[in-house]
């Protein structure tokens, strides 16, 4: 005898065997028991949840030779023929293959004949939504007023494609996706009957692969048994099915919660070495963080999550230590990363950056608390949130600052002035630009000359700011430019040299000489160009401003209060 797969061998034969669809089985049993069996039924739901099995059980219950019963005997010839699929009075029609109007017309012609042996002639049409519009129209009248000996049972995974005229003539039953614990329980019963040794963790992986479908779960279990034999290990199941090991996901969550950057990166490397799909791993992480958030919100999430009791207990321990706002921020980052990984050339990099950001995420401060702290700062009173930090800031503010040396000494007999509490310093005014053309001999001959020329000829002055002053005196100018540079080409122009000599003579007096040299490198003994000098001064000014801001007591207090950092310091320009 050929091997029979588990999905067929353990197919439900009674309403009691139907797992996870008690609302359907109880309604049908009550209808049979009360003699209120409709002439047409529509079973809808996902794949592998028991629609066709329920149709066969209902057909056996209606045609059982031992009488109309809520549970078929499964021993009489009528029940056995329906189970084997060769009953002459129960027709199982594939709607995907018999879609035309001619097939429905043939069916309609056969309806008027009485059943050969059974009580009812039953038509089971699977995937009924595949019928054409003309086929549905040909079935309408017969479906509305069929003979007393005819029953219709339709099954479909896409009820929205069935015309409303058909839906209104049927009793509709929506089959649910089967919960994970129910599938695991059924798989445990089957493997015990088959004499197979397998752990609950492996069965949970198989059931999760089925995604709420009992048939898919049994098909997966068949594959596992073919690979592992009668001794099934968790590692073999994980390797065979290509699913992400649940322990890796839990380790990733713990590493994020513990802010372990190295652990996060090592875990991503392990996922990559195992050959797991990075996007699938990210999706599994999203499911885990969602489960933690739900457990944290409602406490008992037994009916809300497809998790085993052991997994629920483990996630409940994680949920107790986390902040709800932080979990939502983690989920936001993971969802964004999952969307980016669909188009990314380097999905591992996207996942690593997301997990690193999650592990280094600063705790969020509630808006109300921030407003209270700001109000406390504006009013001068320390907020209650962080009294120790603000008290330290006040002590720093009260400490006297070292005074700059004064030019004139105070009289010897004068009493020293009492030290006043330092007031918040006003922003320093921007340095005023030096007047153009300072007196010759002031020590800044080149700078004064360039400012003078820029006032007369702005374009020439801007060009000279990029030139190196090798040697500058009132009588001679020796200027250097890097070989091959644009500045060298411009300064070597005869017209510009004549213009430069004329302006230098006007500024210094006399008739200074001019020499332009090409430099292979920046000269070490020459002064920097004015543009370089300005850049150095700006950098030094920015460093000074940042240092003063970091040392300011109010800024220090604000950083402590908000647990922040100084990102940028901008000088406030005061009006003269």
Task: Show the helix and strand layout.
Elements: H1 6-9, H2 22-33, E1 40-44, H3 51-63, H4 77-84, E2 90-94, H5 101-111, E3 121-126, H6 133-144, E4 150-156, H7 164-167, E5 171-174, H8 180-194, H9 200-210, H10 214-228, H11 234-241, H12 246-257, H13 261-274, H14 278-298, H15 309-320, H16 324-341, H17 347-359, H18 367-379, H19 387-398, H20 445-456, H21 458-464, E6 468-472, E7 476-482, H22 486-491, H23 494-508, E8 513-519, H24 530-551, H25 553-562
Parallel strand pairs: 1-4, 1-5, 2-3, 3-4, 7-8
Antiparallel strand pairs: 6-7
Helix pairs in contact: 3-4, 5-6, 8-9, 9-10, 9-11, 10-11, 12-13, 12-14, 13-17, 14-15, 14-16, 16-17, 19-25, 20-21
Number of strands: 8
If you consult CATH, what is the topology of the largest domain?
A: Rossmann fold
What is the molecular shape?
A: elongated
Question: Per CATH, which architecture of the largest domain?
Answer: 3-Layer(aba) Sandwich
CATH class (first level) name of the largest domain:
Alpha Beta
The radius of gyration over CA amounts to: 43 Å
Oligomer: single chain
Mean pLDDT comes to 80
State the major sheet.
5 strands, parallel
CATH H-level homologous superfamily name of the largest domain: P-loop containing nucleotide triphosphate hydrolases
Could you say how many structural domains there are in total? Answer: 4
Intertermini distance: 103 Å
Number of helices: 25
Which spans of ≥5 residues are poorly predicted at pLDDT below 50? 383-443
Helix content: 40-55%
Structural class: alpha/beta
Strand order of the largest sheet: 2-3-4-1-5
Strand percent estimate: 5-15%
Keywords: ATP-binding, DNA replication, DNA-directed DNA polymerase, Metal-binding, Nucleotide-binding, Nucleotidyltransferase, Transferase, Zinc
Domain AAA+ ATPase: 37-179
Biased composition (Low complexity): 386-418
Biased composition (Pro residues): 419-438
